[in-house]
Fold each of these.
Amino acid sequence: MTLYEYDCAVRNDYPIICGCDEAGRGPLAGEVYAAAVIFDKDTVIEGVNDSKKLTEKKRELLYDEIIEKALCYSIRTASVEEIEEYNILNCAMLAMKRAVEDLEIKPDICIIDGNKTPDLPYKTQAVVKGDAQSQTIAAASILAKVARDRHMLEMAEKYPQYHFEKHKGYGTKLHYEMLDKYGPCEIHRMSFLKKYYAKKSEQP
């Protein structure tokens, strides 16, 4: 079954489907992003897949095509401050909730990537590995990923010492080296760094 066919099967019961996914649960820095997408029943976009399986160049091209062809879409975030206060899982749900509620069209069902769904005033269905099964979820994953990557490029200009343009905030060797050299900045998620700093403090 293709990703488009999966959505067609869902549409048999729920004509207007919204796909939703998030990006940025794992990084040590930056906001968590989420996107929600609704397509017309006839829209097929070649090459749409789980954003992690695509090259950056391919994601950028698909991003523009998804926005052009979607009936409606929304990209929303939860801030670093919210992540610190409510934890990352709750904030991923919060960003998805914001994205769906921001849509101009009310969906009959929201299909959400993963095994948990945000609290929404619509019927919801969690789809494990949904970004590899559903075109609308995959499209949402691409929008969220590209939007977040672009945000981290802006953060790289604001905080050039951390080289966010290279790792997008994820815990790479380079990122940890820059943290050791410069310490964290205001967009770092300190709750994600607790174990790292605790381990460092134990070293002789």
Amino acid sequence: MYYNLFGFLNTIKTQRVIAANYGGNVTQSWVANVVAVELMTPLTGTKVRYVASDELTGQETAQILGKAIAVPDLKWVEISDQQRLETLEKAGINKTIAAGLVQMSANQRTPAFYEDYQRHHPKLGKIKMVDFASDFARIFSKQ
């Protein structure tokens, strides 16, 4: 989700980087408000619905956000799983949840992570990263 990028505000402000435990060359899907519909729908049985608004590499994401916040040299850098875990725990995230987030991100380093998504590729939504970037810039300027 686009809003997950707010979790990187501190490192963007202090180090001019988005530091994740998967590389900037990994193409990932981003999603906006449509995910809220799925999160609010009661779950009955097994259901898989892929939703995505944009697909970008980490470096492309950093470039778009960097332009919006006037940090043109913003980079996406890969850190170790341990470094990511420590960062999340320092931010006050529960250890079990932090470990799950680290594992989820680590999985993005493997091609198998996106196989089913690619087989059932969704129609991309209308809200693109460049649209979200203005919201990101507004929050960034208040930090």
Amino acid sequence: MAKNTICLWYDKDAEAAARFYCDLFPDSRLDAVRRAPSDFPGGNRGDVLTVEFTVAGIPCLGLNGGPVFTHNEAFSFQIATDDQEETDRYWNAIVGNGGQESACGWCKDRWGISWQITPRALTDAMAAGGGEAKRAFEAMMTMKKIDVAEIEAARRG
């Protein structure tokens, strides 16, 4: 296990979530599934307790801790995409698999984890500053999934 790992709390679906992420994102892998050695609050001996995995290069630990805590937008994964095809693929996989759309490139997966699917065209426009950034930002504010062509058009004015 890595020295610093993100721990994600799930009710009971840490393994399913990890497998979904590993199938979707490159540089992802399932490293270990650990079962509870005895009964615990919300689970029984032999149930999956933790799942060690890497998602898009980030080491994570999924903990099946029960329904006590839920996720919110204070934590999100931000995935930089190279084009509209990649943006669409990730967005559609997350939203289309029981997730939900939000605003400005944000969505949630079916487990409540927030994702920012962010085309590099948007971050490049914001980094340019000035009028380009303002126009791109204003265009983004009207979107759910980011439309790369609209961002590029807004950037050009």
Amino acid sequence: MHTYALLFIAVLFETFGSSCLQASQQFSRIWPSLGAIFGFAGAFWFFTLVLKSLPLGITYALWSGIGIILIALSGRVFFGQKLDTPALLGLGLIIAGILVINLFSRTATH
């Protein structure tokens, strides 16, 4: 379970970094730009720790899926970006994929 906590921390850093990237307005604002750099540095650091225990493909699938959902939520909350029905359906399919990997795949180390 410790590995999945590290992965979630990595995704939180990545979400923070991506949100700061949006707020930086193409690196024209200093504090959001520094936040983006900090967020991505932390994300990749924790990502490497997760790779000690989980295979790259599984780790990246989980990272991407969880990150997409959190970024969509961040976009909605902080930037007023609304999702339409097809986007919500797609996010639901991503969640389903994460569940299939973790519940049924023998590739994922549990």
